[in-house]
Amino acid sequence: MDLIDIVKGYISNYVSLSEQEFTYLSSLFVLRNFVKRQKLVEEGEVERYLNFILQGLARKFFIRKNDEMVMQFSRENEIICCYDSFMSGEPSNFSVEALEDMVVVSITLENVEKLYEFSPKMERLGRLIATQEYLKKESFEYNRVRLSSQERFINFIRNNGYLLQRVPQKYLASYLNMKPETFSRLKHLMKKPS
């Protein structure tokens, strides 16, 4: 599958664009490559891009008392961005780092605004994507506080088991708001036959 087809497929989940509309949209994209461990944005920098991941995996995190607090993982066909910084132009509270070599298509806020002016469909696309991202974040935050460590772990494995092979365990533990030893113990318990 061609990279442009991946983007078309993602967008078609939200709106149906004509060839002309998609051509205009893609003309505003920047194709960017990152190597493993490279930062897309650093805490304290202004987030300039909304990034759609074509290949690879990234994490969004911040530092608290010398610990990295992971807030998000995004992989192929998902978006990663420090939204508050992107929308406000203020320095980011987060860093975004490539966990694997990555290829992303990125768009600036200025170009997002051009899209909104170009067509009501583009504004609808932006609203639907923003709503979807907000709902994912709300659900994550609610479950992170509401569920026990074991429930969070089981829920995570059920919905994101593929990350066990792609992400270091210490990052997964941080994401689930638990100590690495707790994550290890729960992982071991899951492997035991009933």
Topology (SSEs and partners):
Layout: H1 3-12, H2 19-27, E1 30-34, E2 39-41, E3 50-55, E4 58-64, E5 67-74, E6 79-80, H3 83-88, E7 95-98, E8 102-107, H4 109-118, H5 120-146, H6 149-160, H7 169-175, H8 180-191
Antiparallel strand pairs: 1-8, 2-7, 3-6, 3-8, 4-5, 4-7
Helix pairs in contact: 4-5, 7-8
Describe the structure.
- Helix content is 48%, strand content 21%.
- Helix 4 (109-118) crosses helix 5 and helix 7 crosses helix 8 (180-191).
- The protein has 2 domains: 3-133, Jelly Rolls (Sandwich), CATH 2.60.120.10; 147-194.
- Strands 1-8-3-6 form a 4-stranded antiparallel sheet. Strands 2-7-4-5 form a 4-stranded antiparallel sheet.
- It is built from 8 helices and 8 strands.
- By secondary structure, the chain is an alpha+beta fold.
- The chain has helices at residues 3-12, 19-27, 83-88, 109-118, 120-146, 149-160, 169-175, 180-191; strands at 30-34, 39-41, 50-55, 58-64, 67-74, 79-80, 95-98, 102-107.
- The radius of gyration is 18 Å and the shape is globular.
